[in-house]
Amino acid sequence: MIRKTTILLLIVLILSTTTVSATQRPVYVISDGITNNQVDNARINQVVKALKDAGVKTVYNGYPGRNGVKVNSYTILSKTPKNAVIVQLMGGLCGATIYSMTMENYYKNLKGTRIVYPIWVYPSVKVDINTIKWLGRSGDDGGHGSFSGISYPAQKLKNAGYEYTYWKTQSDFNKAIQEIANKAGVTKKPATKPTTPAKNSGTITLHGQKVSETIPYTLKYGLKNGKYLYNNDKYVIVTQKQLAKKVGYDGYCKGNYGTKTELYVKKFQKKEKLPTTGQVNQATWNKLIK
């Protein structure tokens, strides 16, 4: 979550050499520290590439914790052009952040004519902002004095003129990219490549299992009350069958994430030059389902 005093983000500004239309707004993509530096950076790169493909010629990247340089996230409002579109990738629903965005004059004055567009990234987000009536202060928020929470955060965001979205599926992602491009002043949709099959709301079917392209949780080995954490799990079944296909996994494919599955996940990660954690996160899942 992006906060006034305690969360620090690195803002690396990469200027495109392409001439930009005078009517086009520059886009800044920044991220909360959501997963880890590698995954967060990859997520930002995915957004940046999609924006460029959509015709947004100038994109600025904000990477958390990169090259050891850290900048207070609120300085993005004072360092960017007054017509900037600021895309915030969020890992949680921080009541203090929404309070600042909607209720505090200093934030409103800093924002000015800039467009701030939050995108809450699943599965990190645990609550639904559209239905929650009370959103408490985050446990790691060190600012905002005695502030304890905010009521009806979605309504307050809408009343303050903010648009926001979730990134749960590939379909969500595509819609968000088009919306950002529209806000930047680029309304032409990129040409559809005929070789790319249409996705059904971000879901695919592999080995008879219908799964999401966005993995809903990290798969890993572990026991709870003597049983596997994941038992007959369809994401584990797909993982095991894809491991058999790609790196010769020869164990059971019944959806139980045991030590053998963990071993072959590490082999696959090593082959794909990914961190060898033995756990299936989004980066590993993306490679597995190809």
Notes on the structure:
- There is one protein chain.
- The chain has 290 residues and is α/β, with parallel strands linked by helices.
- The chain has nine helices and 13 strands.
- β2 (27-31), α1 and β3 (59-61) form a beta-alpha-beta unit.
- The two termini are 31 Å apart.
Mean pLDDT: 77
- Structural class of the helix and strand makeup? alpha/beta
Q: Report the C-alpha radius of gyration, rounded.
A: 21 Å
Helix content: 25-40%
Tally of DSSP β-strands? 13
Q: What is the class of the largest domain in the CATH system? A: Alpha Beta
Annotation field: number of helices: 9
Main sheet summary:
5 strands, parallel
Descriptive labels:
290 residues; alpha/beta; Rossmann fold; Muramoyl-pentapeptide Carboxypeptidase, domain 1; 2 domains; 5-stranded parallel beta sheet; two-stranded antiparallel sheet; 9 helices; 13 strands; 32% helix; 16% strand; disordered N terminus
